[in-house]
Design a protein that fits this description.
The complex is a heterodimer of chains A (541) and B (323).
Chain A: H1 2-19, E1 37-42, H2 60-66, E2 71-73, E3 79-81, E4 84-89, E5 95-100, H3 114-125, H4 131-135, E6 141-148, E7 151-156, H5 163-167, H6 177-182, E8 199-205, E9 209-214, E10 235-240, H7 244-252, E11 258-260, H8 267-271, E12 276-282, E13 288-292, H9 302-311, H10 314-322, E14 327-328, H11 353-362, E15 367-368, E16 374-376, E17 379-380, E18 382-388, H12 396-411, E19 414-420, H13 422-430, E20 436-439, H14 446-453, H15 468-479, H16 483-499, E21 503-508, E22 510-516
Parallel strand pairs in A: 1-10, 1-11, 18-19
Antiparallel strand pairs in A: 2-3, 4-5, 5-7, 6-7, 8-9, 9-10, 11-22, 12-22, 13-20, 13-21, 14-21, 15-16, 16-17
Helix pairs in contact in A: 9-11, 10-12, 14-15, 15-16
Chain B: H1 3-45, H2 50-55, H3 62-72, H4 78-90, H5 104-137, H6 143-157, H7 160-174, H8 187-216, H9 219-226, H10 231-249, H11 251-269, H12 274-283, H13 287-315, H14 317-322
Helix pairs in contact in B: 1-13, 5-8, 5-11, 5-13, 6-8, 7-8, 7-11, 8-10, 8-11, 11-12, 11-13, 12-13
């Protein structure tokens, strides 16, 4: 009797374990007559699939499968037609007239026209929808008016050189007016928040995968696409595999055909495998840098800031941590933003321990304590970094340890790094209890990043640097839409920041993808440097 | 025996149950209340202003601050907020996830299924493996015993993360027997359940074998042997019952292993489930979700320990009378 009970329980448990498992048609790896399917393992599951609430650089590669923006970017950062065929900007820079395509339909059958674009703009003004975008990217937005069935007039309150960048960003991804009104969960996005893109999101299993099927009616790719008409792939699945080693294993065993986020330690293995290919692209925006808080000692003394910058052999440190896979940065703007990057700063500072020692001697830090750290008035030369653990990626904790060793050895600086939770980090920032602040931002227009970091009182101006001249340069550069003028203004900004030794630029964040050699058409978005949508991808031959 | 006496006896037996059950349920509710309160106080004491925490690295403007304060009712006193929170809990309202922009109840209910399946499969796997190992090796002073002990030690000391990667490397990447990720049928459940179940098998196996060996040296074993019973029958029919008691006591511990381990295992195998929700809620300081998960774990513990205690009562009538 008892034995039977045990057996019954066991069967019940097994049945329970099996009953929830979904049955699913196997996804063929190689392309067949239907155009093939592809499985792509990605590191991060997006918080939202709504492009207008998008905020994670790592989720960018998904957005343009489902949604098209109004404007595209070309290889040199130029603006190209997409859902807007052309546009005119009035002389005073206040009125943008968009001429929209008239052959576009949303996945739910709604017509794409001037009224639907206006509905999308108006949505941003809805309270609580996306207050961050409403207050930053759209701070100069006045109103949108329907000037014809496919003509939209946008009036700005002040000229804004970043407005076209906004029109080319995921934020300008067009959502069907019907889903704006009726979606079950507009903020989370998903199956019932639809766009006009080359793929239709038809299945999302949180924590597991998101599945897209081809939009057979698609015929409006951005200018600069490798082909026209519907996508090559019949379906594409993005699987969420947060563990890097697991992603690589899934690729080498053929369970997925593409992976994103290749760890430096696996790069040699992938390069050595003839069945696989690897590609890297630098991200746009600001470089990953250590910003010096110059509002109190020791970094209120420019000599100490310069000494810290000179004390590190950045190339050697990057080599040991990233095994030659990281691109060294020289400026607050990374080389991933060639439109604004000032290359003349290269090799103008750094790796000069003698100069570091001289500067520190001059600044009064000329004695040493028993442990070899420099001392002044009985106080050790200590600089603190407080980092919020959830934001530490790319082995930046290891990088910090390497720099810690370098500045101790070559300059006697006691660099202390604390990894804490977000609340504790925020408190340290609020109380000004830190000396080093590490950050990089992936904005497509690096100017947007600088507007958050550099002006007096800006949201993440954690150096507390304030300079009226610098603020003027930034305001001018933000208002201008003349490429040459902006480049010149931002060159001045970068020079000023370097001369002030406000930061130690370390490396330019990059995206890596590795894929099976049978996959073609994988590209990176030219400006952001993040992987493109699956529109041009083919599998097989 | 008259019908009356029988009824009275049944009534007495029921009364014997009633007290302990009521006490158990009462203390279960008290534990849940304590957990809810502790989670709330932890949130209050956590460094940093709640508004700062909710803003994170995002845009920090007076308007946004005002909006967050209004949305969360942060301008009221801590006691008022605590009262509201308890009332909402009693109404079954777990609040709204700040990061996922969805109801917490909705988030949890959509993710609980895969985790329950994983935990049950791991428990079945772990218990079955432990039973087999213990029954086969107990009482035999041979190399199998030593080998079993060694593998149990390894299973206990290697973290499930590493076990998971190793299992994947061998059975998925090299041999291609099982898929790497997802909640797609029983094949995909095998490796994660094994990664999670091995730890349970390790500890449980050791406890069971020691219990069996102790039982086999008891006088009743000698008596049974003298009656000519086979060794296998002695182990399975008699000694196992004695060995099971300490093993049952471990149920609470292994509920913890299952809950904690599921977080890691789900991440390694790319499975849906509560694990990922927990990790992103903790790293993102998504407090409503964190608190709901604290409550859920407390509820699971309370339920498990209540059931275990009641099972003891069922097994051993003396416990009923002594209370």
């Amino acid at each position: 009797m008892k034995v039977r009970w045990g057996a019954l329980t066991l069967t019940a448990v097994l049945a329970l374990a099996a009953c929830g498992a979904e049955t699913e048609a196997p996804t063929a790896a190689a392309g067949g007559g239907g155009g093939g399917s592809l499985v792509w393992a990605v590191e991060t599951q997006p918080i939202t699939f709504n492009p207008q609430l998008w905020g994670q650089n790592k989720a960018r590669l998904l957005v343009h499968n489902q949604f098209d923006s109004l404007v595209a970017r070309g290889k040199d950062g130029e603006f190209l037609p997409w859902l807007a065929k052309s546009w005119e900007v009035s002389k005073d820079g206040l009125t943008y007239t968009l001429h929209l395509r008239d052959d576009v339909t949303f996945h739910d059958g709604e017509k794409f026209d001037a009224a639907s674009v206006k509905a999308n703009f108006d949505q941003f003004l809805a309270p609580g929808y996306n207050p961050a975008v409403a207050a930053v990217q759209l701070r100069n937005f006045g109103r949108a008016e329907v000037a014809g069935p496919h003509t939209l007039k946008i009036t700005l309150k002040a000229p804004d050189g970043l407005f076209l960048d906004f029109l080319s960003s995921p934020y300008a991804g067009q959502i069907s007016p019907k889903s704006l009104r009726n979606a079950k969960d507009l903020k989370a996005g998903g199956v019932d928040v639809v766009g006009t893109g080359p793929f239709v999101l038809d299945r999302f299993t949180p924590g597991q995968e998101v599945h897209y099927k081809r939009n057979p009616d698609y015929g409006w790719p951005p200018a600069g696409s490798a082909h026209q008409g519907p996508a090559h792939l019949a379906e594409v699945t993005y699987r969420f595999l947060p563990e890097a080693a697991v992603r690589v294993g899934a690729l080498t065993s053929g369970q997925v055909q593409v992976i994103e986020g290749v760890p430096a330690t696996e790069i040699a293995l992938i390069k050595g495998d003839p069945r696989l290919k690897l590609e890297t692209s630098l991200n746009s925006g600001s470089a990953f840098s250590y910003y010096f808080n110059q509002s109190h000692p020791p970094f209120d003394d420019k000599r100490v800031r310069e000494a810290f910058r000179d004390a590190v052999d950045v190339d050697a440190v990057l080599n040991s941590v990233y095994q030659g896979t990281a691109e060294r940065a020289w400026s607050i703007i990374g080389q991933g933003s060639p439109q604004l990057y000032d290359a003349s700063l290269e090799n103008t500072f750094g790796n000069d321990p003698q100069r570091a020692a001289r500067l520190l001697d001059e600044a009064g830090w000329d004695k040493r304590d028993a442990e070899g750290y420099r001392v002044k008035d009985g106080r050790r030369l200590t600089v603190r970094a407080v980092n919020s653990a959830p934001f530490v990626r790319d082995r930046r904790d290891i990088l910090a340890q390497a720099i810690q060793a370098a500045v101790k050895q070559s300059a006697g600086i006691d660099f202390q790094v604390k990894l804490v939770d977000q609340g504790t980090a925020q408190k340290a920032y609020d109380d000004n209890q830190y000396d080093v602040f590490e950050n990089s931002r992936g904005d497509t227009d690096a100017g947007a990043a600088l507007n958050l970091i550099l002006p007096k009182g800006a949201a993440i101006n954690r150096t507390h640097f304030a300079d009226a001249g610098l603020d003027r340069l930034l305001t001018e550069a933000s208002a201008s839409s003349d490429a040459a003028e902006r480049k010149e203004l931002y060159a001045k900004v970068q020079k000023l920041v370097a001369d002030e030794a406000l930061l130690l630029p370390l490396y330019v964040p990059a995206d890596q993808i590795a894929y099976s050699a049978s996959v073609t058409g994988l590209t990176f978005e030219p400006v952001s440097g993040t992987p493109n949508s699956a529109y041009d991808i083919r599998t097989g031959t | 025996m008259s019908t009356l006496t029988l009824t009275r006896r049944r009534g007495l037996a029921a009364a014997g149950w009633l007290g302990p059950v009521a006490r158990r349920l009462g203390s279960g509710v008290a534990v849940l209340w304590a957990a809810a309160t502790a989670a709330y106080v932890a949130l209050l004491l956590a460094p940093g202003d709640t508004v700062d925490v909710l803003i994170g690295d995002g845009l920090d403007t007076p308007e946004r601050r005002a909006q967050i304060i209004a949305e969360w009712g942060l301008d009221r006193s801590a006691l008022q907020q605590y009262g509201d929170y308890l009332i909402r809990l009693l109404q079954g309202d777990l609040g709204h996830s700040y990061i996922l922009q969805r109801g917490v109840g909705d988030v949890l209910s959509s993710q609980i299924g895969p985790t329950v399946r994983l935990a049950l499969a791991a428990a079945v796997f772990g218990v079955a493996l432990a039973l087999v190992l213990a029954l086969v090796t107990a009482g035999r002073r041979s190399w199998t015993n030593g080998l079993a002990g060694l593998s149990e030690l390894v299973a206990v000391s290697v973290p499930p993360f590493l076990i998971g990667i190793l299992l994947l490397a061998v059975f998925s990447f090299s041999l291609g027997w099982f898929p790497v990720s997802g909640d797609r049928g029983s094949a995909a459940l095998v490796l994660p359940a094994a990664a999670l179940g091995l730890q349970i098998a390790g500890v449980l196996g050791q406890v069971l074998r020691e219990g069996l060996e102790r039982a086999l040296e008891e006088p009743f074993a000698v008596t049974a042997r003298s009656r000519g019973i086979t060794e296998w029958r002695l182990v399975t029919r008699h000694a196992l019952r004695h060995a099971l008691l300490p093993a049952v006591t471990l149920t609470g511990w292994f509920t913890g292993v299952l809950l904690g381990g599921a977080i890691v295992v789900e991440a390694v195998f790319g499975r849906p489930g509560l694990g990922q929700v927990t990790v992103s809620a903790v790293t993102g300081k998504d407090m409503p979700v964190v608190m709901a998960i604290v409550l859920l774990s407390a509820l699971v513990y309370v339920t498990v320990s209540t059931v275990v205690d009641l099972a003891y009562l069922a097994i051993d009538p003396r416990l009923r009378r002594s209370r």
